[in-house]
């Protein structure tokens, strides 16, 4: 989705992209917590009732998409203009150029910030507790209320988030090494 938007913003589809994605600056310019509250508590005033998990998924998805499309747009823009010209000179269509020449190069640039955004998103899921989603932090809160083991429960939650972030970071590093393996061979 955000890859299509990033491509649309760069080419002849800018007006159409603007129609469908006016929300990008909005979602990049407001705190995720506020977005979750507007979606979960605000939309019911307009007749749109959502379950907590659905509201959280929509909020996290729109927020991540806003950042991801800008990361991809910047990565695509970073590919030298000569690459486009070289592809055109051998008869590639715009789509072939994007798929075979531009996106593979842009992926190398986009992967680190996309990975970091995803890791941040995983940690940001703790915000879903504010709209009653029974995620990790919310469960720690509920157990703490029952057992009064504040330090133990929140430390356990922090440890689980740390393990997840570390595992995702390791996975990101392996993926980056795989994408960049051709650079190392030359």
UniProtKB/TrEMBL annotation:
Topology in the lipid bilayer: Multi-pass membrane protein
Entry similarity comment: Belongs to the binding-protein-dependent transport system permease family. HisMQ subfamily.
Highest taxon above the source species: Bacteria
Compartments where located: Cell inner membrane; Cell membrane
UniProt name for this protein: Amino acid ABC transporter permease
Gene Ontology molecular function: any one: L-cystine transmembrane transporter activity
Organismal lineage: Bacteria, Pseudomonadati, Pseudomonadota, Gammaproteobacteria, Pseudomonadales
Main location: membrane
One Pfam family in the UniProt entry: BPD_transp_1
Record carries keyword Cell membrane: yes
Keyword field: Amino-acid transport, Cell membrane, Membrane, Transmembrane, Transmembrane helix, Transport
Keyword Cell membrane: yes
One annotated Gene Ontology cellular component of this protein: ATP-binding cassette (ABC) transporter complex
Chain segments annotated as transmembrane: 151-171
Domain ABC transmembrane type-1 span(s) in chain numbering: 1-172
